[in-house]
Amino acid sequence: MIYGLTYDIDLSKDCDRIVNLRHAGQAVDDTDQLAVATNSYRAHGGGGFFKVGPNDVLDVTATGARDLLVDYLRRRGTVTGQTETVWRFAPLSSAHAAVYSAPQAKPQSRPHKLRATQTTADGFAVFDLKL
Predict the structure, then answer these.
(1) How far apart are the C-alpha atoms of 102 and 41, rounded to whole Å?
(2) How far are the Cα atoms of 17, 41, 67, 85, 104 from residue 98, in angstroms, in the given order?
(3) In the sheet that 26-27 helps form, which strands lie side by side, from edge to edge?
(4) How do strand 5-9 and strand 87-89 relate by DSSP bridges?
């Protein structure tokens, strides 16, 4: 996930499933370029991500990402988390998925498409997700 980006995942497509890609509410065009802050592990291909070439680096600091985050949090003090919908499944007519989770799991208070259906013999709750 990248802060400010939203998108839909269209499961009806075999490839190019990301649709309705937006940054800060504006449609992202194939020719648009965005700057992404990351750490050296990801930038060098760690975790299966593509490796960033040296000509694509905008700015490098000797201070590690972890240290920058710690400094920010110390200056800021209390940080309150926010939730926002970043991605969603594009609507599919009458398509559903079964989601297995802890029996205590409850959907958030915001609108959702999850409905509890049953509890399995080994104690998992089964939710129906309308896609």
Answers:
(1) 33
(2) 21, 35, 41, 20, 16
(3) 26-27, 18-23, 5-9, 87-89
(4) parallel
What's residue 73's pLDDT?
A: 92
> Looking at the predicted structure, is the pLDDT value of residue 109 above 60?
no
Helix (H) or strand (E) holding 126: strand 125-130
Whether pLDDT at 100 is above 60:
yes
Mean pLDDT for all residues in the chain: 85
Structure confidence at residue 75 as a pLDDT band (50, 70, 90): very high
**27 to each of 4, 20, 22, how far by Cα in Å?**
12, 7, 4
Local confidence band at 26 (pLDDT 50, 70, 90 cut-offs): very high
Judged on CB neighbours under 10 Å (0-12, 13-18, 19+), 129 is middle
Strands of the sheet containing 96-101, edge to edge, are 96-101, 125-130, 114-119
Tell the residue number behind the tokens 């996930």, with chain if given: 1
Cross-strand pairs, 27: 22
Do 12 and 90 touch, CB atoms closer than 8 A? Answer: yes
